[in-house]
Design goal:
One of its GO terms (cellular component) is cytoplasm. This protein is an all-alpha fold. The protein contains 8 helices and no strands. It has one domain: Ankyrin repeat-containing domain (Serine Threonine Protein Phosphatase 5, Tetratricopeptide repeat).
């Protein structure tokens, strides 16, 4: 069985798709982080909250961006994920994509879908200045 078949089997036997671990990670966080697009789509079809934060305030979009999961990022954005959602420290998915060594396509997807490149965290520079320095 593949991942999606296992998830469907678990759900059919009563598994709770909104459950959280001790750090408030949901099944959607796990699927988004790992790039399991079929599981992500299935969970979204079941109506799970795509903007649900974990204990650190990170949404599935944050973790997908950090891990460079561009297909998942695209799906989450298409389904209405908040591209400017801040975590507990004020970081958005755009910050996570910029911090990732493999998040370039995620950066493009976020910016093309309304991510605020002028957003600052505390006294730091706007993400735009960090991006300009990184890619020029």
């Amino acid at each position: 069985l593949g991942h999606i078949e296992v998830v469907k089997l678990l759900v059919a036997h009563g598994a709770e798709v909104t459950c959280k671990d001790k750090k408030s990670y949901t099944p959607l966080h796990a699927a988004a982080s790992s790039g399991m697009i079929s599981v992500v789509k299935y969970l979204l079809d079941l109506g799970v909250d795509m903007n649900e934060p974990n204990a650190y305030g990170n949404t599935p979009l944050h973790v997908a961006c950090y891990n460079g999961q561009d297909v998942v990022v695209n799906e989450l954005i298409d389904c209405g994920a908040n591209v400017n959602q801040m975590n507990e420290k004020g970081f958005t998915p755009l910050h996570f994509a910029a911090a990732s060594t493999h998040g370039a396509l995620c950066l493009e997807l976020l910016v093309c879908n309304g991510a605020d490149v002028n957003m600052k965290v505390g006294d730091s520079k706007a993400i735009r200045s960090l991006l300009t320095r990184q890619y020029v």
